[in-house]
Amino acid sequence: MVNILVLEDDAKLNQTVCTYLNDSGFQAKGCLNANDAYEEMYNNLYELIISDIMMPETDGFAFAETVRRVNKHVPILFMSAKDDLPSKQKGFQLGIDDYMVKPIELDELLLRVRALLRRANIEMERKLVVGNLELDADGLTAAIDGKEVPVTTREFNILYKLLSYPKKTFSRSQLMDEFWGIESNTSLRAVDVYVTKLRDKFSACNGFKIKPFAGWGKGGAGMTGAIGKAKPAVRQSHFPGILCVVYFLALLVMSGIHMGLVTLINEKEWNDIVAVTIPTLYWALVAVGLTLYARWQIKKTYEEPMHRLAQATAKVAQGDFSVYVPPLHTADKLDYLDVMILDFNKMVEELGSIETLKTDFFSNVSHEMKTPLSVIQNCAQLLQKEGLEEEKRQEYTDAILQSTRKLSNLITNILKLNKLEKQTIRPMPEPYDLCQQLCECALQFEDAWEKKGIDFVADLEDRAIIQADPGLLELVWTNLLSNAVKFTPAGGTITLTQASGEGNVTVSVCDTGCGIDEETMRHIYDKFYQGDTSHSTEGNGLGLALVQRILQLSNGTVTVESRVGQGSTFTVQLPASVQREGTAS
Fold it and tell me: How far from the centroid of its chain's Cα atoms is residue 290's Cα?
């Protein structure tokens, strides 16, 4: 049975592709993120890899690059919504073997899979090559430049593990548990001994280095620091000082030569015409020379830098944001013209970032649309099969309906966000009861939290009248509550709290879900960003972007506190003149 690894962050599409490949006689395993795929590749042998490109955390390019470092032979097929030539070029440069653009034809995918497997040398898949080192997993042998290096089985397994994860750091306890067993009474010092032996045996390898961290036998980790220097003052004059020095010395020397000429003329007793003509011609030549020198200095100091800046400006005006103008002096000798050039470079970099963001936005929209379209197309193809079981037919129909709803929500959210950012939609404040609105929004999710067995706790005042746009704020509460229900596991708790203060009202939504890591926290308000790929089919990454923009227009704020594995709390503060009566819970 040929094993195929499918890396696709959209769960429905992943399942559809795996089901089709399994029905076609292959053994397909799906993964929703690169870390799970790395783990699968370590624990199992895969003859083919199918990967998406646009994924949270580690994208398909980084995944392919890592795979190619440790396995140069396994065929890789990219299946992505990105249909631009630079993406295809980058993929093939990283070593992929084929590229398909979503939405895909399942029959075409099958043809490409069979062609890749036909061309691939499956027997080589058990060999791992890094630099001049080759590990043969079948014979448990290691060779450097073709010469076998004797290793024990345990040494081979440890080395294979380390090379399979070139960027990962393993603790002694991890290696001890995996290669000696959890119940082993062997001292951790044994791990130090094996790692030291591997470092010595394979010190001649040019493709990798085993770097023990602090506490590992002979190895260690140090910290280096640098004493920062004060920022140098910027010179406020760009005038070339050398010009004054040259003029002073030249006039001093020329004056001496003039006195010599006058003395010579007097000694020779030349007539008055010669006595006047020679000094006049002499000083005329001196004036021409000094003028040409001054012109050269002004051109070099002022004109040439400004011409370069003008040419760069013209390129930026034509849409070229790769322009860079080098400053005239080093960082410790900057003057005001250098500062102007550096500010120009920073401006161009920011403009380029905006252009990149725009390109990424369209790319993300394309990806988010093509993925559900691919699910719809593939499920429709599967529904055309004769003799399909009713259970399968219902499954494919549900997938189509879910994808159409996702597309509809995506388009609706894009339009809303676009109108909000262009301020086509402006808040229309009116007095209304916030507590009643929170209750109505929460009741929309009653079926969802009861289905998952989630405890819902509300701690609200009986009545709180605020001056705000009820239609826009409803989107805020709906998105926050939807995320809480989505990420809270069965048996968890969601707490909705509202309190009034002096001139403000605070609403918080707290859950006991999976929590948010630091990397995701930095991107949660980015458009289309989804930190948890296991729920990627339930949203489109626009909800919190909408929340933030609505609160900005409403002079409000949103903050988040979260710990991985313990849950998250989103807190919204709005300025309001509040009338409150009692408390309900």
Answer: 57
